[in-house]
Design brief:
Blueprint: H1 2-10, H2 14-59, H3 68-81, E1 99-102, E2 126-129, E3 137-140, E4 151-154, E5 158-161, E6 173-177, E7 192-193, E8 207-211, H4 219-227, E9 239-242, H5 248-256, E10 260-261, H6 269-274, H7 293-301, E11 326-327, H8 330-336, E12 342-349, E13 359-360, E14 363-369, E15 382-387, E16 404-405
Parallel strand pairs: 6-12
Antiparallel strand pairs: 1-2, 2-5, 3-4, 5-16, 6-8, 7-15, 8-9, 9-13, 10-11, 12-14, 14-15
Helix pairs in contact: 2-3, 4-5
């Protein structure tokens, strides 16, 4: 009996010991999970910074000259550093050497890109951004240091491509210039132009509906070319004609590019496939100094849909567009969206506007559609972005494209 009592006495406290050991193990596991989560979040944040850096730098490849590398580097660093890291507590240290340029994606057996340098020429179409490529970002651990692991290194890289030869199609809308020989034909990049073309009183930047050679006449033909691809064969478009057959159908067709689908353009898969919206429907009511293009690109990249409250009438109410259109959602823009609001249009001399004569095309302007139309005679708002082939497109023709991440 005495032996049994001694044995029981020796077993006292065993559970406490096991509990203590279990608690230590559980705390260790919890610490490991927290540290790994911390590292994962920092890695994601650093990758976001690399993505933004590469995309912004690639946009500067629209014009290749002696300042391209400097402009792209500055744009990449600025955009990348807006994405803070380590729970938004630190700015990623992106250096000039972290941004490199290449003409192709040739890589070695380990996937490392070859032929990327700190120079750009006419063949350059890729930008690689690798924050801390030579000095990885060190992230302090919280619990793993108990195992001797005080910090862990994080790296990230992104490569973006600029579409050097994006095809362009003309829209049946002419813009006029008062000075054909001036730089950019007297247009100012970033400035909004509007106003109707009137014979004898046209001002710089006024717009008017036109008909291309061989284009069918009538309101349906005009609407179809606006909602559709546009006039893609421009080889014969050396002259244009005033188009007098304009109805609200033109405004409805114009608005599909903003993801606004009203009768006869019903918002369904068939129409959004045939008459694609842009990748963002976000609209602008008032111009800003330097233009809204950069903001537009950001919303384009994120597929931001049209917001009725963003465009208001003189009474402070959302504008009621023709056809009572339904709005393409974010997911619709992801599925069906394309680059539809950077448009190319013929430039004519302001003094040549006439309903009876052929009007010579003196150039092609790239413009950003900034807002839907209220009706066929309503205000048309466009932001001038450049002359095709002169900072607005490649030598083979093409409007400003949007960089895409390729790896």
């Amino acid at each position: 009996m005495k032996s049994s009592s001694v044995q029981l006495c020796r077993q006292k406290g065993a559970i406490a010991v096991m509990t203590g050991i279990t608690i230590v193990v559980l705390i260790g596991i919890a610490g490991l999970v927290l540290d790994l989560a911390h590292l994962y979040i920092v890695k994601t944040e650093l990758q976001n910074a690399a993505d933004a850096c590469a995309l912004s730098a690639a946009r500067e490849l629209s014009t290749i000259n002696g300042s391209t590398v400097m402009r792209a580097t500055s744009a990449g660093i600025t955009a990348g550093q807006r994405n803070r890291v380590d729970f938004q507590s630190a700015v990623p240290d992106i250096q000039d050497a972290d941004i490199t340029f290449g003409a192709n994606l040739d890589a070695d057996a380990n996937g490392k890109l070859l032929n990327f340098t700190r120079s750009a020429d006419k063949n350059t179409q890729y930008v690689r951004c690798a924050p801390h490529e030579t000095q990885a970002m060190s992230v302090m651990t919280w619990f793993m240091r108990a195992l001797g692991k005080y910090e862990s290194s994080m790296t990230a890289e992104a490569t973006a491509k600029y579409p050097k030869a994006a095809p362009y199609c003309g829209v049946p809308l002419a813009v006029c210039t008062k000075n054909v020989a001036a730089a950019n034909m007297n247009f100012e990049v970033g400035k909004w132009y509007s106003g109707r073309l009137e014979a004898g009183t046209a001002e710089q930047g006024n717009y008017g509906w036109i008909r291309f050679p061989n284009q069918d006449t009538g309101t349906d033909a005009l609407s179809e070319i606006i909602a559709g691809d546009g006039q893609c064969d421009l080889s014969s478009a050396t002259v244009v004609f005033q188009n007098t057959g304009v109805s609200n159908g033109a405004a409805k067709a114009w608005n599909t590019r903003f993801g606004l689908y009203g009768s006869p353009y019903k918002k369904d898969a068939a129409n959004m496939t045939a008459y694609k919206p842009d990748q963002t429907g976000w609209s602008y009511q008032n111009p800003v100094e330097g233009g809204v293009y950069d903001d537009f690109v950001s919303r384009h990249d994120n597929h931001v849909s049209y917001d009725p409250a963003n465009i208001i009438d003189s009474k402070g109410k959302p504008v009621d567009y023709p056809g009572t259109p339904a709005i393409a959602s974010h997911s619709d823009l992801v599925t069906y969206g394309s680059d539809r609001r950077m448009v190319s249009m013929p430039i004519i001399d302001c003094d040549s506007w006439s309903a009876k004569k052929e009007m010579p095309v003196v150039g092609w302007a790239c413009s950003l559609m900034v807002a839907p139309m209220e009706d066929a005679n309503g205000q048309i708002r466009l932001e001038f972005r450049g002359i095709v082939g002169n900072g607005c497109g490649g030598a083979g023709g093409g409007v400003v494209g949007f960089p895409k991440l390729v790896r």
